[in-house]
Write a structure and sequence with these properties.
Helix content: under 10%
Distance between the termini: 40 Å
């Protein structure tokens, strides 16, 4: 449990498997941190539901992600209700170098990051991205940059991300069984909602 207050992170917080980390506390990268603020590598059964992750990009010129999943395999990981902002690269980064399965970002805000707001790379299976708000990020708002299988992108809002990327993106031909529903795209200079692959279902999305 992370008690209320602000915590400066001098080195990456490594979250172990079988962990619930929640509470009203806020963490911020120390000046000069050149690594993710929070990292999960080859983890299983983790919930992160703290209040805020501040990447402090103005003072971390070689900084990285706010919350990063990497390693060969991550599974059963949920990031819920976290405000992630001002990271040098991605706000929330799901990457399984072999596979990430049953991962989720739910009701998060990811804003003003140097790259994507919420990003998935490599192979994502059974991913859920529900109710998030992504705004003012340097590239895409919510992006599936690798291959997605059996995933849901539902009820998210993306606003003014880019300028050269999509608010919502995921157009790999190998994607399959994707639901893209009830999302809202506002502003941005490229595509609003841009997904591709086999058996991709669009329902109730809006681009303004």
């Amino acid at each position: 449990f992370l008690d209320g207050g602000h915590y400066i992170v001098n080195d990456t917080v490594q979250v172990p498997s079988n962990t619930i980390w929640q509470g009203p506390g806020r963490v911020k990268a120390a000046a000069g941190l050149a690594a993710p603020v929070i990292r999960l590598a080859d983890r299983d059964r983790v919930l992160i539901a703290i209040a805020e992750v501040d990447g402090n990009k103005a003072n971390c010129p070689s900084g990285a992600e706010g919350i990063a999943l990497n390693g060969d395999n991550n599974s059963n990981i949920t990031i819920e209700g976290v405000y992630v902002h001002d990271c040098k690269t991605h706000g929330v980064y799901f990457r399984g170098d072999v596979l990430a399965t049953n991962v989720a970002a739910v009701n998060c805000r990811s804003e003003d990051n140097g790259a994507g707001g919420i990003t998935c790379a490599q192979l994502i299976r059974h991913g859920r991205f529900i109710g998030n708000h992504v705004e003012g990020n340097g590239t895409h708002g919510l992006g599936i940059l690798g291959v997605a299988e059996h995933c849901a992108i539902v009820g998210n809002t993306a606003e003014a991300n880019g300028p050269d990327s999509d608010n919502f993106t995921g157009y790999n031909a190998a994607n399959h069984d994707i639901i893209v529903a009830n999302n809202v795209s506002r502003g941005g200079l490229n595509h609003g909602i841009h997904f591709g692959g086999g058996r991709v279902v669009y329902v109730g999305n809006t681009s303004i």
